[in-house]
Design a protein that fits this description.
There is one protein chain. By secondary structure, this protein is mostly helical. The protein has one domain. The chain has 6 helices and no strands. The longest helix has 24 residues, at about 50-75. It starts with 5 loop residues before the first helix and ends in a 6-residue tail after the last helix.
Length: about 110
């Protein structure tokens, strides 16, 4: 299903990671797919409030937790630059879908990175 939110559809997801050779593109591609799937879930389920949004972002955060092993296997890791870029993209999702009061730490509360 294509993303209907124009801002989200045009977003250069994880752009800092793509620009840095330390992060393998094939793993960053998987992270980008997590964000695209999150946008699709938000558009499909239309969370009514912040707790409903957080439930969706927590599930996506768990997917990033699982990607940590793939980054490590490729000689990389989710470290400071990656953590900040991922968190920024989660914040973007919240604001793009009408939740400017979302707490970025709560968006990614179950993170292990």
């Amino acid at each position: 299903m294509p993303i209907r939110n124009r801002r989200a559809a045009a977003r250069p997801w994880l752009s800092a990671l793509y620009r840095d050779g330390y992060y393998p593109d094939h793993v960053v591609d998987r992270g980008r797919a997590v964000f695209l799937a999150l946008c699709e879930r938000i558009e499909d389920r239309r969370p009514a409030d912040l707790p409903a949004l957080y439930a969706l972002t927590h599930a996506a955060t768990e997917e990033f937790n699982a990607l940590e092993a793939e980054f490590e296997a490729a000689g990389s890791e989710i470290e400071t630059v990656a953590r900040e870029e991922i968190a920024e993209d989660f914040w973007f999702v919240a604001t793009a879908y009408g939740f400017p009061d979302a707490d970025v730490e709560e968006l990614i509360a179950p993170r292990e990175w």
